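Worked example

This section walks through a single chain of length 211. The input is the sequence exactly as stored; nothing has been trimmed or padded.
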Amino acid sequence: MYFIRHGQTPTTGIELPGRKPGLHLSELGIKQAALLGEALAKNKSLKSAPVFVSPLERTRETAAPIAKALRTRVKVEKGLIECDFGDYTGRKLADLAKLDGWRAMHLSASTWRFPNGESFLEMQLRVSQTIWKLSESHLGKSVIVVSHADPIKMALNSALGSSIDFFHRIEVGPASVSIVRYMQLGPSAVPQVIGVNLDSGSSFVRGSSHG
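Given that input, the structure is written out below as tokens.
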């Protein structure tokens, strides 16, 4: 499973957009998505691989050139949507960093719930259920998932078997690719993390070292 974070937007690193509608890729984000499509098309294992995407505009815009390059279709999967940040949605990161809750969120993700929003435990369950559903329905095949930073970090953290309190320690940049192999070995199946936060120039993304 290839986890791809959407490309750069005008608010990346400035605001916490969450599920706020109407946010599109910036000019740089559009270029990033095009480069990803070109790179992934060189990976023979991804030929006609299904592309599943969060419902939000910025993920669908990232997925479009990828699906075109792979000659496949984009399918919206609601379980891949960004975390519901509640009252924090749309606020500037510089302002949020001044709140006591912002520190608590990073120190104890397992007990954190966004005011009038989603808890990280709820997001973890939602993302995990979605990933296993996609994995089980595409046995032996490669799958591309285009989502957001926190859901992808949560997926990687779970694959590594780490405590939810540590998922913030994983870096997932705009237009990055992270790869996890989900092994079908019965109820004790153990995922294998192949790569994290890779760019379009990585040999793992292009497929010269990974098939």
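What to look for: The mean pLDDT is 94.
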